């Protein structure tokens, strides 16, 4: 059994337009690197996080530490681990920064312990880790980061994750304006009531999106990405959202919406060439603003966390 392992923990896009709180997919183009070493002191130690010194190193506050502890508790082990995180996904980006750390941690520790758990079982522990970041149990980022592809979170009691392999030519473009949107604030904007007519359109789209993913019907994926409920309420937080969406749709995107609770925005495409054109269109819109931003062009991740 090895004593040390390095992993790539991918970013992820949750909500995916119509699938508020129930859908997410992982992306290969951005992720954290994490190094795990066994120690003989029965302690989880987290080094200061490279690039983001403000992130907690207390293992009870860092999602990686909490996720590892949840796994060790279930296994009845007191093995210690030293954890190093090279964080490339900015916290609060809407592309699953904390979820990447939680997913990377459980996959790496499982590997170092001789793989007692399946990837699907690891999602439970990653989700417990993710809870310290958001104060709430949710798996729409940790499940795809751990498993790859698309994940539908059908329910939580017990956790029921349906994994869907991504259609083979599905590309994603994400623009991350370097502003901070707190998930809590972004949630407070949402009305607790949904008019029945809107709900009907929304669940039609969720079912359409699922069918499109299973049958690699890109056109159906595109027309199902519409979000009649959350996007119209949240888009006010994202600079240039309407113009951005119009430009990427003109550039050939299948669909476009807010990634997680923002400020990142994602678009899907059916080939790399179109994804590049979409990235250029995003760049043109955002160049006019005073804001810093980053754009990632990436295939949908097939396997989630990768052992390097
Ligand atoms: P994101 O969706 O990008 O993960 P959140 O706002 O949901 O953004 O989570 C970020 C919060 O999680 C911050 O308060 C941060 O301090 C906390 N956190 C704890 N551990 C980590 C970690 N390893 N990586 C990123 N964020 C972490």
TrEMBL record:
GO BP terms, alphabetized: threonine biosynthetic process
Location of the GHMP kinase C-terminal domain: 210-287
Keyword list, A-Z: Amino-acid biosynthesis, ATP-binding, Cytoplasm, Kinase, Nucleotide-binding, Threonine biosynthesis, Transferase
Segments forming domain GHMP kinase N-terminal: 65-149
Keyword field contains Signal: no
PANTHER family recorded: HOMOSERINE KINASE (PTHR20861:SF1), HOMOSERINE/4-DIPHOSPHOCYTIDYL-2-C-METHYL-D-ERYTHRITOL KINASE (PTHR20861)
Its job: Catalyzes the ATP-dependent phosphorylation of L-homoserine to L-homoserine phosphate.
Protein name per the record: Homoserine kinase
Recorded name of the encoding gene: thrB
């Amino acid at each position: 059994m090895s004593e040390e392992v390095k992993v790539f923990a991918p970013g992820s896009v949750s909500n995916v337009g119509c699938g508020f709180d129930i859908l997410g997919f992982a992306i290969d183009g951005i992720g954290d690197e994490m190094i795990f070493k066994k120690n003989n002191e029965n302690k989880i130690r987290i080094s200061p996080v490279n690039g983001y010194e403000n992130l907690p190193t207390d293992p009870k506050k860092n999602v990686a530490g909490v996720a590892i502890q949840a796994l060790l508790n279930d296994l009845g082990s007191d093995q210690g681990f030293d954890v190093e995180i090279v964080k490339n996904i900015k916290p609060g980006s809407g592309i699953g920064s904390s979820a990447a750390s939680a997913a990377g941690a459980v996959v790496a520790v499982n590997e170092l312990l001789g793989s007692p758990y399946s990837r699907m079982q690891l999602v439970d522990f990653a989700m417990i880790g993710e809870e310290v970041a958001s104060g709430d149990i949710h798996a729409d980022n940790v499940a795809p980061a751990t498993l790859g592809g698309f994940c539908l979170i059908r329910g939580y009691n017990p956790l029921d994750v349906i994994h869907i392999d991504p259609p083979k030519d599905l590309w994603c473009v994400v623009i991350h304006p370097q502003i901070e949107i707190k998930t809590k604030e972004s949630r407070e904007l949402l009305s607790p009531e949904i008019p029945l007519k809107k709900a009907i359109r929304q669940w039609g789209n969720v079912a359409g999106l699922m069918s499109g993913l299973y049958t690699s019907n890109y056109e159906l994926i595109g027309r199902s990405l519409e979000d009649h409920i959350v996007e119209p309420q949240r888009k006010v937080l994202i600079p240039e959202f309407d113009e951005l969406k119009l430009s990427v749709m003109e550039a050939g995107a299948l669909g476009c919406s807010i990634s997680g609770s923002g400020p990142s925005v994602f678009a899907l495409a059916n080939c790399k060439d179109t994804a590049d054109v979409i990235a250029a269109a995003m760049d043109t819109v955002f160049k006019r603003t005073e804001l810093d931003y980053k754009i990632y062009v990436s295939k949908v991740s097939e396997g989630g966390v990768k052992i390097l």
